[in-house]
Amino acid sequence: MAIMGLGQARPFFPQLPPDCSPYVFPLWLEEGSEAVKTRLRGQGIYASRWPTFPPEVIDRKSEHRIALRTWERLLFLPVHQGLSRQQMSLMAERVRAAIADIV
Question: Less CB within 10 Å around the terminal CB: N or C of the chain?
Answer without folding.
Answer: N
